[in-house]
UniProtKB/TrEMBL annotation, chain A:
GO CC entries: mitochondrial membrane
Listed name of the protein: NADH-ubiquinone oxidoreductase chain 4
UniProt KW Transmembrane keyword: yes
Subcellular location: Mitochondrion membrane
Species annotation: Eleginops maclovinus (Patagonian blennie)
Family membership noted in the UniProt record: Belongs to the complex I subunit 4 family.
Keywords per UniProt: Electron transport, Membrane, Mitochondrion, NAD, Respiratory chain, Translocase, Transmembrane, Transmembrane helix, Transport, Ubiquinone
From TrEMBL, chain B:
GO cellular component, one term: mitochondrial inner membrane
Protein name in UniProt: NADH dehydrogenase [ubiquinone] 1 beta subcomplex subunit 11, mitochondrial
Similarity-based family: Belongs to the complex I NDUFB11 subunit family.
Record text on subunit structure and interactions: Complex I is composed of 45 different subunits. Interacts with BCAP31.
Amino acid sequence: MVKFLFPTLMLHIHADLTNYRLMTLITQSSGHRLMIAMINVHLTLKMAQWLDEQHLNPYMAQTPYLPHFVLLTCWLLPLMIISSQHHMATEPINRQRTYIMLLTSLQFFLILAFSATELIMFYLMFEATLLPTLMIITRWGNQAERLNAGMYFLFYTLASSLPLLVALLLLQNTTGTLSLLTLQYSNPLNLSTYADKLWWAGCLIAFLVKMPLYGAHLWLPKAHVEAPVAGSMILAAVLLKLGGYGMMRMILLVLEPLSKELSYPFIVFALWGVVMTGLICLRQTDLKSLIAYSSVSHMGLVVGGILVQTPWGFAGALILMIAHGLTSSALFCLANTNYERIHSRNILLARGLQMVLPLMTTWWFIASLANLALPPLPNLMGELMILTSLINWSPWTLALTGAGVLITASYSLYMFLMTQRGPLPTHLIALDPSHSREHLLMALHLLPLLLLIFKPHLIWGWVS
Amino acid sequence: MLTRLPRLGLSLPRLLRNHPVRFVSQSKPSGAAGVAAVTELHPPAEKSDHGEVSPYVKNPDYHGFSDDPVVDEWNMRVGFFFGISVALVIGGAFIHYLPDHGMREWARREAERVIVQREQEGVPLLSEYYYDPNKIVVPGSGEE
């Protein structure tokens, strides 16, 4: 674990030092290439490490499904930096440093949150990720509405995670420990009263809002739309998964006897959300908002998969979370390349781009197909596993999930056709051709997704 | 940069001449009212107001990293080397040649071997006893 944390800490110092030594030499205005190198090197180290699920100390450990999330986090940080290069190019050097340090501190907290085995430590890191994200949204967003979005983001997640703190303290009071390593050997709690049911809800609501569950999702489209591209990427790719990860941890170890009955309304809500947010996507004019709602829709499936609590459900949730992390982040990058050229997020203003940016259309095509879960891609595998476990739970869920899958395909194709096909509007004359930087960015998002087809059991976790 | 837009070949000379009017109707004017509306909607933009100069003017090999051509190229090289060559290619090969994690592949091969062996011997694939009953020492009923 130190292997990941130490380089991350080093990145902080690095961001400082490059200013004086290397920045003038190698990377003048937006130089952070070396950090990417460092991250990538320690990425390969991490792959070696996920062979043996090791426990380093009582507070941090690698669990069988943890490395995927840490890997996703570490993979995304350099991508975020590459993607925001255009955004940050005009800023003075000090602000660039602050920005990079913000991103690295976010990564630091995320790694700690994913590797914590002590629930209070998990809670603290879960909350700590709020601050850098909030700063990214409210400081580096583009419109004045970002303050409103930041407010929504802060209060939705903060208000929902307060019950989690109370619930955790209560658990500590009852069992005497909050270590997940100890809790898994303790007797099942005797949960029968109404207060226990409230406690159950308190344990999960923080994660359900973070996921987000339909009904508590309003902060997400706002935050996504107003955040700069790096904020949208990390939000869609990792922060939502933090909720899923927390749910998996809590529901497996702590909440066991009650979850069977109490999860019923939440599953229904999640599946209803899949359909509803899909329908909302169909009438979006704002590209980033469309992608944000599509995230809500996919996360609804993940919530369903986790709450039915079967090995297939968990495996499907894990696969879908990883695949969706890469896909949605790629889509946000694509939306940003449009935004940098057209200076609007509106779909209607950026149509027919295949004419001018043909190679970018290829990336749009792959990303849209990944979003609608084309057969060999991990997205489909995750959805299939979740759908199967949901049908096993109740056949009636097929109506909702089936409709959801259809609608997902519709809005993904709608997004692709609207932005890429058709004649070029007359106001789009002098567009920049797509840069190598953007192609690198998209390749680094989508090639791992395609490579996962060939080695699926890296992310299949429970069943393989 | 504009030579990379093949579909705009027809409009290219017009663009290079740097007309102050950016929106020119290609179709023949059908009536005076329509033309007036278009010019009112899109007043000719001042060139200095635009504020964005294409980086390709200064550096035709622009990669999108930096305005300085040297920094730009080195950024591109380092990015592609570490992103594609190291992480994806070497990392992919590394993962491909990792040893069998948790002996899953071995277990599958072994299971297939045992199935073939048992089918040849004509015994059921799975015994109905989880433990070998001969090895279980049961306390006698009468002896106390």
